[in-house]
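The protein record filed below.
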Amino acid sequence: MIITGAVLEEVGRPGPWAETRPLTVGELELEGPHAGEVLVQVEAAGVCHSDLSVVDGNRPRPVPMLLGHEACGRVTELGAGVTDLRVGQRVVMTFLPRCGHCAGCATDGRMPCGPGSASNNAGEMLGGGMRLSRDGSPIYHHLGVSAFATHAVVDTRSVVAVDDDVTTAVATVLGCAVLTGGGALLNAAPPEPGQSVMVVGLGGVGMASALTAIALGAGEVVVVDGVEAKRNQARELGVTMALDPAELESRGVKADVVVEAAGNARAFEAALAATLPGGRTVTVGLPNAAARASVSPLQLVAEARTVIGSYLGSAVPSRDIPIFAQWWREGRLPVEALVSSRIGLDDVNRAMDELAAGRAVRQLIEL
């Protein structure tokens, strides 16, 4: 079938991207679903730092690639052997499929799926190969989803069905921002009753982590970000304290559990320095592969510290998405607040500029 999508033509093209336009919106060919896959009509896709990291070269991927990995949509066709989904069902798309059989899948979310990670790095489907092409030439998939398009073919292990009462905006951000930021506290380092939580970096992932800390009843919830508008929004959502990075350092505020969600080495160092003795530092950001941070091994030993790496919030999507959806349903987790603007697919290059400048939490591309 013919679809419309946003293809990244070149990695590392200089900005502003609204002018240099590394992403081209146009027609593509999409094969029907293979065995174990479904065709989804995309309703909305979130613009995430993991998309930006491919555009700016921090996370190199093969190109040309159809970007987008956080999305929701309606199933329109079932591949052979698919019996657990139905046509018309709303699904959340997630960016790390789990084969269910490898050593990583046996860790209950702590480790990524090996085959899923390999197919993501190759720009292919979990079942092998590509379903996208343009003028007869293959187009790579982004993290098994490629949701900056009107339609996507995805493996059933990359989707989780949700009830129709879960709105498009909520379903979209559940697939990445909430799983990653919320999962860091639900799975990787759940705070004990009365413990304080700090979140460094207030993009979609960081803001979701702060909302989850509040939902879990953390003692104090502190957030750190250099953008005043984001700090003000966090205050409105109920955090105890919102600081800029200079204030964090000068005031010496610390917490029992600190989540680093900014994706750079300096933020990781700040998060580590802000962790109380006996506390846990959880890093979920994805910096450049060459980035390095300074750590004091003596401090880790003397203060009995724990540093935890958490990919996709150490989540099992089929288990955790229904939990977060129910919290939203109960009014405990107002994740629709993560959506800072709604845009069209033609605005995708400008959206990357907005994200890089720190002016956006989650821009939602409506298809």
